[in-house]
Amino acid sequence: MDGETKLLRHTLATLAYRGAKALRGAPAEFADYRADAGSRTPGQILAHMGDLLDWALALSDGRHDWHDSPALPLERGAARFFKALEALDARIANGAPLATAAERIFQGPIADALTHVGQLAMLRRMSGAPFQGENYFKAEIVAGRVGAEQAPPRQEF
User: Fold this and answer.
1) What is the structure's pLDDT at 28?
2) I need a labelling partner for 102 at 20 to 30 A (CA). Which of 9, 44, 54, 109 fits?
3) Does any domain span residue 126?
4) 150 within a domain of the structure (yes/no)
5) What total of structural domains would you count in the chain?
6) Average pLDDT of the segment spanning 40-51
7) Burial of 36 (0-12, 13-18, 19+ CB in 10 A)
Protein backbone atom coordinates (compact mmCIF):
# COMPACT_ATOMS: atom_id res chain seq x y z
CA MET A 1 0.00 0.00 0.00
CA ASP A 2 1.47 3.36 -1.00
CA GLY A 3 1.76 6.41 1.23
CA GLU A 4 -1.20 8.21 -0.34
CA THR A 5 -3.46 5.24 0.23
CA LYS A 6 -2.29 4.86 3.83
CA LEU A 7 -2.93 8.53 4.51
CA LEU A 8 -6.35 8.38 2.86
CA ARG A 9 -7.34 5.39 5.02
CA HIS A 10 -6.08 7.17 8.14
CA THR A 11 -8.15 10.19 7.14
CA LEU A 12 -11.24 7.99 6.85
CA ALA A 13 -10.53 6.57 10.31
CA THR A 14 -10.17 10.14 11.62
CA LEU A 15 -13.49 11.06 10.03
CA ALA A 16 -15.10 8.02 11.69
CA TYR A 17 -13.60 8.85 15.09
CA ARG A 18 -14.67 12.48 14.98
CA GLY A 19 -18.04 11.64 13.49
CA ALA A 20 -18.70 9.06 16.19
CA LYS A 21 -17.80 11.60 18.86
CA ALA A 22 -20.12 14.24 17.36
CA LEU A 23 -23.02 11.77 17.15
CA ARG A 24 -22.52 9.73 20.35
CA GLY A 25 -25.20 10.53 22.89
CA ALA A 26 -27.03 13.01 20.68
CA PRO A 27 -30.75 13.05 21.38
CA ALA A 28 -32.98 11.85 18.53
CA GLU A 29 -34.48 15.33 18.12
CA PHE A 30 -31.01 16.70 17.31
CA ALA A 31 -31.54 15.48 13.72
CA ASP A 32 -34.20 18.18 13.26
CA TYR A 33 -32.46 21.08 15.02
CA ARG A 34 -32.24 24.17 12.85
CA ALA A 35 -29.87 27.04 13.72
CA ASP A 36 -32.00 29.38 11.59
CA ALA A 37 -34.70 29.13 8.95
CA GLY A 38 -32.28 28.79 6.03
CA SER A 39 -29.79 26.35 7.52
CA ARG A 40 -29.51 22.60 7.08
CA THR A 41 -30.55 20.38 9.94
CA PRO A 42 -28.04 17.90 11.38
CA GLY A 43 -30.09 15.15 9.71
CA GLN A 44 -29.68 16.86 6.34
CA ILE A 45 -25.94 17.35 6.96
CA LEU A 46 -25.57 13.69 7.88
CA ALA A 47 -27.42 12.65 4.68
CA HIS A 48 -25.09 14.90 2.68
CA MET A 49 -22.06 13.30 4.38
CA GLY A 50 -23.34 9.87 3.33
CA ASP A 51 -23.75 11.17 -0.21
CA LEU A 52 -20.19 12.51 -0.18
CA LEU A 53 -18.81 9.13 0.87
CA ASP A 54 -20.91 7.33 -1.75
CA TRP A 55 -19.52 9.76 -4.33
CA ALA A 56 -15.95 9.10 -3.14
CA LEU A 57 -16.56 5.37 -3.60
CA ALA A 58 -17.87 5.97 -7.10
CA LEU A 59 -14.86 8.17 -7.92
CA SER A 60 -12.58 5.38 -6.72
CA ASP A 61 -14.05 3.25 -9.50
CA GLY A 62 -14.06 6.02 -12.12
CA ARG A 63 -17.75 6.90 -11.89
CA HIS A 64 -19.16 10.36 -11.17
CA ASP A 65 -22.39 9.26 -9.48
CA TRP A 66 -24.05 11.82 -7.24
CA HIS A 67 -27.30 11.53 -5.30
CA ASP A 68 -29.11 13.95 -2.98
CA SER A 69 -30.49 11.74 -0.25
CA PRO A 70 -33.21 12.83 2.16
CA ALA A 71 -32.53 13.19 5.86
CA LEU A 72 -33.16 10.13 7.99
CA PRO A 73 -33.85 9.79 11.70
CA LEU A 74 -30.56 10.29 13.56
CA GLU A 75 -29.84 6.64 14.30
CA ARG A 76 -30.48 5.56 10.70
CA GLY A 77 -28.54 8.51 9.28
CA ALA A 78 -25.57 7.67 11.48
CA ALA A 79 -25.74 4.01 10.42
CA ARG A 80 -25.74 5.05 6.76
CA PHE A 81 -22.73 7.34 7.35
CA PHE A 82 -20.68 4.55 8.95
CA LYS A 83 -21.77 1.99 6.34
CA ALA A 84 -20.60 4.35 3.58
CA LEU A 85 -17.30 4.89 5.40
CA GLU A 86 -16.81 1.13 5.71
CA ALA A 87 -17.54 0.57 2.01
CA LEU A 88 -15.10 3.29 0.95
CA ASP A 89 -12.38 2.08 3.30
CA ALA A 90 -12.80 -1.51 2.07
CA ARG A 91 -12.52 -0.33 -1.54
CA ILE A 92 -9.34 1.61 -0.84
CA ALA A 93 -7.87 -1.24 1.24
CA ASN A 94 -8.47 -3.89 -1.43
CA GLY A 95 -5.37 -2.79 -3.32
CA ALA A 96 -7.06 -2.18 -6.67
CA PRO A 97 -5.79 1.01 -8.29
CA LEU A 98 -7.94 4.07 -7.71
CA ALA A 99 -9.52 5.41 -10.90
CA THR A 100 -9.35 8.92 -9.43
CA ALA A 101 -6.22 10.25 -7.74
CA ALA A 102 -6.24 9.91 -3.95
CA GLU A 103 -5.53 13.61 -3.50
CA ARG A 104 -8.61 14.49 -5.57
CA ILE A 105 -10.77 12.13 -3.52
CA PHE A 106 -9.39 13.80 -0.40
CA GLN A 107 -9.74 17.40 -1.56
CA GLY A 108 -13.34 16.95 -2.67
CA PRO A 109 -15.64 14.57 -0.80
CA ILE A 110 -13.44 13.65 2.17
CA ALA A 111 -12.40 17.20 3.10
CA ASP A 112 -16.03 18.28 2.71
CA ALA A 113 -17.19 15.50 5.05
CA LEU A 114 -14.59 16.55 7.65
CA THR A 115 -15.93 20.11 7.48
CA HIS A 116 -19.45 18.81 8.09
CA VAL A 117 -18.36 16.89 11.19
CA GLY A 118 -17.28 20.25 12.59
CA GLN A 119 -20.70 21.65 11.77
CA LEU A 120 -22.37 18.79 13.63
CA ALA A 121 -20.16 19.46 16.65
CA MET A 122 -21.04 23.16 16.60
CA LEU A 123 -24.74 22.40 16.18
CA ARG A 124 -24.62 20.01 19.14
CA ARG A 125 -23.44 22.90 21.31
CA MET A 126 -25.97 25.33 19.86
CA SER A 127 -28.83 22.86 20.34
CA GLY A 128 -28.05 22.45 24.03
CA ALA A 129 -26.59 18.94 23.70
CA PRO A 130 -22.83 19.57 23.82
CA PHE A 131 -20.13 16.96 24.24
CA GLN A 132 -16.65 17.28 25.73
CA GLY A 133 -13.82 18.61 23.63
CA GLU A 134 -10.82 16.39 23.11
CA ASN A 135 -7.15 16.54 22.22
CA TYR A 136 -7.49 14.63 18.95
CA PHE A 137 -3.72 14.46 18.55
CA LYS A 138 -3.72 11.92 21.39
CA ALA A 139 -6.72 9.95 20.15
CA GLU A 140 -6.33 6.29 19.22
CA ILE A 141 -7.20 6.45 15.54
CA VAL A 142 -6.36 3.39 13.48
CA ALA A 143 -6.72 2.91 9.72
CA GLY A 144 -9.52 0.46 9.06
CA ARG A 145 -11.50 1.38 12.19
CA VAL A 146 -14.28 3.24 10.46
CA GLY A 147 -17.44 2.08 12.23
CA ALA A 148 -19.40 3.72 15.00
CA GLU A 149 -17.46 1.77 17.65
CA GLN A 150 -14.31 3.75 18.40
CA ALA A 151 -11.64 3.76 21.08
CA PRO A 152 -12.52 5.77 24.17
CA PRO A 153 -11.13 9.30 24.37
CA ARG A 154 -7.65 9.59 25.83
CA GLN A 155 -7.71 13.25 26.85
CA GLU A 156 -10.93 15.18 27.02
CA PHE A 157 -11.22 18.67 28.40
Assistant:
1) 96
2) 44
3) yes
4) no
5) 1
6) 98
7) exposed
